[in-house]
Design goal:
Length: about 325
Amino acid sequence: MASFNKNKLKISVDETDLNSNRSVRLDRWLTDRIANNSDFPKISRTQLKNLIHSKCVRCDDKIIEDPSLPIRCGQLYTIHVPEPKPATPQPENIELNIVHEDEYLIVINKSAGMVVHPAPGSSKGTMVNALLSYCGNTLSGIGGVRRPGIVHRLDKDTTGLLVVAKSDEAHQHLVHQFAAQTIKRTYEAIIWGVPDKPTDRICFPIGRSRANRKKMAVVPKGGKKAATNYVLREQFGATASLIVCKLESGRTHQIRVHLNHIGHSLIGDPLYGGSRKISTRDDPNLKFAKEFKRQALHAKSLEFVHPFKQERIRFSVPLPKDMQTLLEGLRRSL
């Protein structure tokens, strides 16, 4: 049994959790169980040890203070996860590529390398820091202290279009559109190899990877429904392809996970694929592709109903220079 409610995790020990050859440490077991459940908050082993030392973990209502205790079948552990104390992001004068702005929202063409909102290890230089400087106090507060105005996000090294809410009403309206899947998002991706089908729908549930907690993965159970549609736009021999993707859902790393699952990971993706085993001895253009510094993914277009004008609006931006250069190199390799 495992559940999460009101900042409390409850996890019970059953026979499948035990190893007959050796005892299982409490901190290691709890870390694994939490990591394997996509509905639980992310908690590292170090953070879990600190929670145990801080008397935030109970076993059958008894406070536990030793992370090395062995687990026993039938035990019920309750972990109190304190609310985070977010640091207030500070305004920073960072240039933003603004595609559209009115009194209700801003549409931004995000550059590679920019984190959208502050997080551990990325407290400065984020889009939120830049927005606070540009907009002052006019951003929607629904996203909370650490992510004012943020309705959705792009990975750090993914480029392209993002919409940001400037009022709570606009924020609620846009979030509802995302939930109803009426916002249309189109991505361009440069991938290794050529898909078997020129167009297809990739539909596999996504959850936290059991092998690596920093990654998401297609999982047999416990994941969230996810669907990605793609169309083959251009191919470069058998080496690589340019595809257009449209999302039906917005799971973490969805396009990267789905493409890796079907054997065609994004060129430059450091987390979900790396480079294929291709020879670059006679072709410097392919060497360039293998050395591409980020996942070759770009949020090209965004279409939604304006929260107050009640009309559909659409924005589109071209591929960034590095992806255009990558395509030119791949075309020369033919």
